[in-house]
Design a protein that fits this description.
single chain, alpha+beta, Arc Repressor Mutant, subunit A, SH3 type barrels, five-stranded antiparallel sheet
C-alpha cells in the first residue's frame, strides 16, 4: 500500500456529530463565546447550547460560564483530526497505516480495534477518541480523560507468529512514547511495566491486548493514554484514588495533540518492526536510562504474594530484577509500589 492509499476519517466526517462535540469544537480556541453566538453558528437554540454544555461537563470537561461573556474552555487546543494526523506522518509510517479514525466518543479505543478484523501484515489500523466512557488501564482500572484532556490512541498490528518475548513489548512501546515526546523537551521516565511518569506522577500508560491463534499469527492492540490537560479538579480526583497524576499542561508543555499523535503513531510503527526483528535489544539502553524504579526500595505484588527488595532494572527479556535478602529475583508480571522513604 502506498502512502496515498492510507485513509483517515474524523468523527465529523463519519456521520452527524452530537451537538456537544460541535460546541466543543467552537470553544476549542479558548475564547469566550456567547450562547447566542454559539446558537447562531450551529443553527440551534440557546437552550440546546446550554444542554450541550451540560453534556460536556457530565463527560468531565471543564467549561467556564461567565454572565455577559459566555462559555469557554480553560485551555485552547485543536480537536483531534484524522486528516491532520495523517498529513504529519513520515512517508514510511503513512504507508503502513491502512486506516486512521478519530471519534468523538467511544467506550474504549482498544475495544473498537479488538472488535475489527486483524490488519494485514505490515499494516496498521489506528483509532483515537476525544472521550472514552470506559477507558481501561492495567488490572481493569478506569482511565479518566475528559474531552480534549488527553490523547486516547489505539493501534493494531499483526505479527506472523507470536514473538518469543512478547511480554516485553510494553517496555519497547514505552521507549517509543519517550521518543515521541523528545521534541517537547519533557524529561519523562518509565515505570515497569507500562507507565510514563513525570516527577513520580503518572503522565500516561500503555495497555497491550493480544489476539492470537495457536502456533500462528498474532494481533496486538496497543493502547496509549497520555494526559494533555486534565484540569485541576480531575487531577485532584485521581490523586484521591491514590494514583497521583500529571498532564502536559502542568509540566509546562504546549503541543498540538495532532502533532503528538502523529509522532506516537510513527514511533510505535517503527518500534514494532524493530521489535519483530530484534525483540527488546534496540530499546533496552534507552529504557534503562529512563528507569524510574532503579535503585528504589519497592514492593512487588504478584500471584505468589508480595516481595520487598531493591529494584535493579530489567533484563534483556523485559523481566524486572529485584534484589532481595535471598538473592535477585525476576518478575515478568506484577504490581510495583515504591516504599516511602524511612
Amino acid at each position: 500500500m502506498s502512502a496515498r492509499d492510507a485513509t483517515g476519517e474524523s468523527a465529523r466526517s463519519s456521520g452527524a456529530l452530537p451537538l456537544a462535540a460541535r460546541v466543543f469544537a467552537q470553544l476549542a480556541d479558548g475564547r469566550f463565546h456567547s450562547g447566542e453566538a454559539l446558537a447562531e453558528a450551529l443553527g440551534v437554540s440557546r437552550g440546546a447550547v446550554w444542554k450541550a454544555v451540560r453534556a460536556l461537563r457530565d463527560s468531565g470537561a471543564t467549561v467556564h460560564a461567565v454572565p455577559n461573556r459566555g462559555y469557554r474552555l480553560p485551555q485552547a487546543g485543536e480537536p483531534l483530526a484524522a486528516e491532520q494526523i495523517l498529513s504529519r506522518l513520515p512517508e514510511g509510517a503513512r504507508g503502513a497505516v491502512r486506516h486512521l479514525q478519530t471519534l468523538w466518543q467511544t467506550d474504549s479505543t482498544n475495544s473498537v480495534l479488538l472488535g475489527r478484523p486483524n490488519p494485514p501484515f505490515g499494516q496498521s489500523d489506528v483509532v483515537l477518541a476525544e472521550h472514552q466512557s470506559a477507558g481501561r488501564g492495567r488490572r481493569g482500572r478506569a482511565w479518566l480523560a475528559p474531552p480534549g484532556g488527553a490523547i486516547c490512541l489505539s493501534l493494531s498490528w499483526s505479527f506472523r507468529e507470536v514473538p518469543p518475548d512478547l511480554g516485553a513489548l510494553s517496555l519497547a512501546v514505552g521507549v517509543c512514547v519517550l521518543r515521541a515526546l523528545r521534541d517537547t523537551g519533557l524529561a519523562a521516565q518509565l515505570k515497569w511495566p507500562n507507565d510514563i511518569l513525570v516527577q513520580r506522577h503518572k503522565l500516561g500508560g500503555i495497555l497491550i491486548e493480544l489476539r492470537a491463534e495457536s502456533a500462528g499469527p498474532a494481533c496486538v492492540v496497543i493502547g496509549i493514554g497520555l494526559n494533555a490537560a486534565l484540569g485541576e479538579p480531575l487531577l485532584r480526583q485521581i490523586a484521591a484514588l491514590g494514583l497521583p497524576a500529571t498532564d502536559l499542561a502542568s509540566a509546562g508543555v504546549t503541543v498540538s495533540r495532532n502533532v503528538l499523535a502523529a509522532a506516537l503513531v510513527a514511533q510505535v510503527l517503527q518500534g514494532l518492526q524493530d521489535f519483530e526483528r530484534s525483540a527488546l535489544r534496540p530499546f533496552i539502553d534507552e529504557w534503562r536510562a529512563a528507569d524510574a524504579l532503579r535503585g528504589a526500595q519497592v514492593d512487588v505484588q504478584s500471584a505468589a504474594g508480595t516481595v520487598h527488595g531493591i529494584a535493579r532494572g530489567i533484563d534483556l527479556h523485559g523481566a524486572l530484577l529485584i534484589e532481595t535478602t535471598q538473592g535477585v529475583r525476576r518478575f515478568i508480571s506484577g504490581e510495583v509500589t515504591v516504599r516511602p522513604a524511612q
